[in-house]
Sequence to fold (420 residues):
Amino acid sequence: MKRTLSTNPWVAVVGGVLMACARAAPGDTRGTATAPTIATATATTTATTTTTTIPLEGADFIAQARDLFQTAACGPGEPPSRFDAGVVQRHCDDLRRAYAEYRKTWVDVAEPFLAALRPKDLPDAVVYPFGGGDLTSALATFPDALEITTISLEPAGDVRPIDKLAPNKLEKELAIHRAHLERLFKMAHSRTDNLEKESLTELPGELLFALGALVVHGDEPVSLRYFRLRPDGSMAYVTQAEIDAAARRPRALRSLFDNAELRFRSLSDAGKPVQVLRHVAFNLDDEHLAADPSLLAHLNRTGKVASMTKAASHLLWNSHFGAIRRWLLAQTDWMASDSTGIPPRYAQPAGFTQDTYGKFNGPALFGLFDDRDAADFKRLFASQPVRELPFRYGYPDKDGRSHLIITHRGSERPRPEAGP
Fold:
């Protein structure tokens, strides 16, 4: 029997998925952003990727990003001296233990497994719908991607409150964010309700998750800018003048910090190019994509991409999310997902083959799902040899077992039947 939705499934409270609330307006957060600078970043061109040239304009909040990186994400460097060194040290001792355990039990297992599956000629641009707060597994899946775009309901958040955070509030703030980071590491995906809670803290949780991912993968931030999308998909970086003009209008001010561009580089490999994370706060249902064409126009500028999704509440199964599903089918060459990815009834007619890893006996009860797709995925797994999966990638199946689906163009499997 088919299950249907009577309301927009991404803004309803369904199976633990909560709409992100707007973050409370910060207090007096007059920034110390550097003056606008102009630079040009050109992504390496491959046979399947369009060269991207975007002038770097607007206000750069790298100073605040580094303070957040060093204080809350516990990256290399010294946190601001006004904060209690003992509070920061205790927080970082706990968080670094969590980082080490996560690297050992997930990153060090997942990275080589996924590397053995990835074709060598993948596009160097990655799109991760429903991927808020999960740069860490995006980098494990696509460590060499030059551009990673994550899209979710949650705003990136204003980094400037790190300048004004009262020292006596630091310990509580750090404890909240540490608990959510530890849960991310334990579950290997970001829960929407955790991201919603993060958005209500003084420090920007979405950005902090990304900075934590940099620590896990041995990277450091080199710039942080905010942007909005024009109707034609081009990017307009937020300027200090715009921030100053919106200072007395809390809603307008918050909206300037919805979308963020974080550029980062490897700490250990100076020859590795600078990579870019762009996080876009957007409701991906058909109604919102039709009302505001800027996001799809922006994604269309990217050309062919690699993609991933996981723990996405089965939204790509749903009729309300047809536009983003069609875009992925048109523009994706290779996709990694759990069962919340693109169902066989859409992937196979579009010329994709889906390879299965792990075991799947039905979807976990997150969100509302279509019984047809549940049965199709179950048949898909049953039709292929069991290929062991030694780590969790998003949701488990209904019996708690890990599974992974690689959706790729053509009929040839990139690796032998026995798996990587």
